[in-house]
Design a protein that fits this description.
alpha+beta; five-stranded antiparallel β-sheet
């Protein structure tokens, strides 16, 4: 689990909106790709999936008052999840910090 300071602070609703509107373009620009990215939001949890390359939920972001907790649900050998995670952490740090 990775913890990111929630300095802004972002609510789960505002994070969900930011992810939906800005993260797909951000990650696709960084990777030089055109990946589909899907999001689901319930209470203080935002799930992120990449249905074309990873089966099921890839990451969960739990939004707290002081931090965002990122949980990785990917398994070894699926795509290049370390690079996806790196760009997700960069994006969250940029938006929350």
């Amino acid at each position: 689990m990775i913890s990111i300071n929630n300095v802004q602070p972002l609510s789960s609703e505002s994070l969900f909106d930011l992810l939906k509107t800005e993260f797909p373009a951000y990650v696709n620009e960084k990777l030089g790709s055109n990946l589909a990215v899907e999001f689901a939001h319930v209470s203080d949890i935002v799930n992120i999936s990449f249905p074309e390359i990873i089966e099921g939920n890839a990451y969960t972001v739990t939004v707290g008052d002081n931090s965002l907790e990122l949980t990785d649900h990917t398994t070894e050998g699926t795509y290049n999840t370390e690079l996806l995670e790196q760009h997700l952490v960069e994006f969250l740090t940029l938006k929350a910090g």
